[in-house]
Every structure is written in C-alpha cells, then in structure tokens.
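Methods — Computational structure assignment.
A single polypeptide chain was analysed. Its primary sequence is given first, followed by the predicted tertiary structure written as structure tokens.
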Amino acid sequence: HQQLLSCLNDSLADQFCNAIGVLQQCAPPASFSNIQTAINKDQPANPTEEYAQLFAALIARTAKDVDVLIDSLPSEESTAALQAASLRQLEEENHEAAARLEEVVYRGDMLLEKIQSALADIAQSQLRTRNGAPSQPSPGKKQLHNLVLSTV
C-alpha cells in the first residue's frame, strides 16, 4: 500500500510535472498574426520531440509499475478470510504444541521424582553403611541408569 502511494506521489507526479515544465520551456514560440516574435537561436532545432519521447517512456514505465503494485495488493475480502483461516490454523498448532509440552513436562516431573527417590535411597544406604548398620540393597549406578532409561 505504501509502495503504491510512493510510486504515485513521487514518481508519477514528478514525471508529469517535469514533462510539462520541460515541454513548456522547449516549445517553439507560437506566432500570432499581429505580433512578431524571435526564435531563441541557442536552442537545438527540435528538442521537444526527444523530451516528449523520454517523458512518455518514463510515464508509461511508471504506469506499468503502478499496475503491478495494484495487482499485487490483496483484496479486502480475501485478506480477512485468509487471516481468519491462518489464525485458526495457528491456534490449532499452538494447542497441539501446548499438549505436547504438557506431556513432556509431566514425564520430566515423573522422571525427576524417580531420580530424587533413587538418590535418597542411595544416600540412606551410604549413611547406614558408615554407621555400621546392615544395609538393604540399594540401587547402584547401573540400576539408576536403567531406571532413567526406562522412563525416557
């Protein structure tokens, strides 16, 4: 939208203004029946035609750019419908991702509880061993590793 306004305001308006100014400046004097005018000898023989072709090409190119920009603008109806559909799709994907995240967090919490329980058992076993009390079999490193792998 902004590109279109810029193209219309800056390019096309400037080109029309410059074209009219240059054509006015270079136009041969008009002869009136009762007034004699002298032609400026410093001007080239017929620059008006060259300028006319140059500005016609510039204006035509800018008009084509404007057409391309207009064609690239989305229609109001399709924009609202497309945005609504896109938002529904994004909301659905967000809910699915949230459900997956909740499941991963739940499994992580369960794993953390198992690890903390196993570490507590190991610490209790080590304390009993240091105090000389007979210890119950506690999970070793291999058993702890298997516990972690079984929950993953």
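Note: The CA atoms of residues 17 and 26 lie 14 Å apart.
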